[in-house]
Amino acid sequence: MPELDIDASAREVADLLNQGQIRQAAERLETLRQNQALVVQESLDRLVAVRARDRLTAPGVIAADERVGPIVERLRTATASPRFPAETETRDLSQAQLHDVYGSMVASRGNQAARDSLDTNNERVILGLRNETQTTVRHGVGAYDDRLVVVWKDHLGVRHAREFNEANTEPSAQYDHHAGSDGTRRYAEGGQNAPPLERSLGYEQVSRRKIEGEDVNRDGVRDLGRLGEGTTEMLATTHPAYARGRQNGTEFALRPSPEAVTDGTRRVQRDSNADGWFTAADVNGVQDLNNTFKIHRGSGGESRNTDSAGCQTIRGGQYDEFIAEVRRNPQQDRWQYVLTSVGAGQQPQQERALPNEGQPPLPQPPEAARPLPPRRPDDPEHTDHGLHRQIQDRVGALGPGFHENREQLSMSLLAEAKARGLSQVDHLFPNHATATLKPGEHLFLVQGRPNDPAAQRAMVNTAAASNTPVEESLSRIESLNQAVASTTVIDQQNRNVTQDTPSIRLG
Q1: Residues 28, 125 share a domain
Q2: Residues 230-287: tens digit of each pLDDT
Q3: By CB count within 10 A, which of 64, 67, 388, 496 is most buried?
Q4: Alpha helices in 6-94 (DSSP H)
């Protein structure tokens, strides 16, 4: 089968939509999507949605046709936070398809300056995909679980993209004032010693470096910040370089331009309640941009320390490759950086490791010994009935703005809660409004106290969750329950095998 040209196919469908040929466009789109990988289908939808945005949002565009209506609704939510594609999904794509996968994210999540740069030959655009990660993870040294991508067309218009998979877009708690002070810990700004301060709950095991951040809620403790979603114009700057733990000169880095700072109202999020997350629970948690939010090198080696107090960092040697690509065109002196959170979504089947992967299959119990739960969580006998009711109550408490498609939203939240290992949802918070996010675009599910760093959390895009068909969420819930049941059976079989094995006495 010939490779699908995602860009050209999207233009074809968008042209039909913009001409008012809704049914023909929907039918053509579904034909093009057939037998394509999920990551290609998503990119095709995104590009169509961007190029036909005005038509899709016009009143009365949704047809009464049962087949066309859901397709148009899917396109209307296609520009929400993208799913984080696994490395195995993108590694075999051609450069043209890889460009279109990530270019579609730039087009749907970036501003006009980013889209213009993407369309300009030989200009690099930087895309950041953010997995929501607690700042206290790994004793506060951070995790390289995000992705930066450089996307461009060469001087001939040929499409290219390059992934950098050991990246970080969030601060690490080692710089957080809430990790306490013994009286000798220094403030980064000014260099004075911070007065003695007890560690906040959840920061007992966090390693400590100099204190960064701003005290936004006036409690005497500085609060770490991160760059919010959106497009930030970056310029060349320098950052200290280190060798064997000592500063060794400076090296190339990127930082927000003066124009980006001027236009950066409400572009920074701060964790003022010390729970390690950035949500609406943070008092004065949205602030204006400054030029300290750089892109620079993080530590390599075994430590895997992100070295981030709020900057975007790339691990060790991969940073050299990133900068070489960013600077490939010596005439380019400004770079559009598009940062987006990634939405929840089921990983492709090949990404879910089987419980007995690499081992001979264990005997399965007879079919009669595997009772299936009732199909729907609203059945009192369903294993997830209690969690479903709890989520419904939380959605109801959010107010009328969240009551449209309430059943779809609640079921989608249930699926995501189960996928993230939440057994209860004690709180449901919308995001704060920022320069690029309306209030309530994202929802945070919390198991535990909101200000407890140990609380479990999950994030969903509200529009995507509200428009996920109930049957799709039910299918996901059923798959998750079957996976748990299968693991339980296999664990029991392994325990039985262990118990039946004769013990060996040593000595």
Answers
A1: no
A2: 999 999 999 999 887 788 899 999 999 999 999 999 999 999 999 999 988 899 999 9
A3: 388
A4: 6-18, 22-33, 38-51, 53-57, 68-76, 87-90
In the β-sheet with 225-227, what is the strand arrangement from edge to edge?
Answer: 225-227, 268-270, 286-287
Residue 323's domain spans which residues? 111-341
305 with 223, same domain?
Answer: yes
**Which of 341, 366, 396 lies at the terminal end of a domain, its last residue?**
341
What residues are paired with 343 via a beta bridge? 83
**429 part of a folded domain:** yes
Q: Would you tell me how many other CB atoms lie within 10 Å of the CB of residue 450? A: 18
| Cβ–Cβ < 8 Å for 241, 250 | yes
Other Cβ atoms less than 10 A from the Cβ of 378: the count is 15
Region 337-342: mean pLDDT is 96
> Which of 89-103, 280-294, 328-342, 474-488 has the lowest average pLDDT?
474-488
pLDDT of 499 strictly over 60: no
Q: Cα angle vertex 354, ends 349, 358, to 5°?
A: 120
Give pLDDT, residue 453: 75
Identify whether residues 166 and 249 lie together within a single domain.
Answer: yes
Beta strands in 21-178 (DSSP E): 125-130, 146-153, 159-168
Residues 124 and 50 in one domain: no
In this prediction, residue 170 has a pLDDT band, given cuts at 50, 70 and 90, of very high
Average pLDDT over the chain, rounded to an integer: 87
CA distance 110 to 337: 8
Do the domain assignments include residue 440? yes
Closest to 294 (Cα-Cα) out of 140, 128, 178, 438: 128
Distance in angstroms (rounded) separating the CA atoms of residues 398 and 466: 14
Looking at the fold, whether 189 and 325 belong to one and the same domain comes out as yes
**Predicted local confidence at residue 487, as pLDDT:** 55
What's residue 167's pLDDT?
98
**How many CB atoms are located within 10 Å of the residue 312 CB?**
28
Q: pTM value?
A: 0.78
Give the total number of structural domains in the chain: 3
Asked if 248 and 289 sit in the same domain, the reply is yes
Longest dimension (CA), the chain: 84
311 in Cβ contact with 298 (< 8 Å): no
Rounded CA separation 376/385 (Å): 8
Same domain? 139 vs 10: no
pLDDT of residue 230: 96
**Residue range 196-206, pLDDT digits in tens:** 999 999 999 99
- Is there a domain that residue 33 lies in? yes
C-beta of residue 161 within 8 angstroms of C-beta of residue 95: yes
Token pair 């995909």 is found at 129
Are residues 250 and 173 both part of a single domain? yes
Q: Does the structure show a pLDDT above 50 at 349?
A: no
CA atoms of 439 and 265, how far apart (whole Å): 15
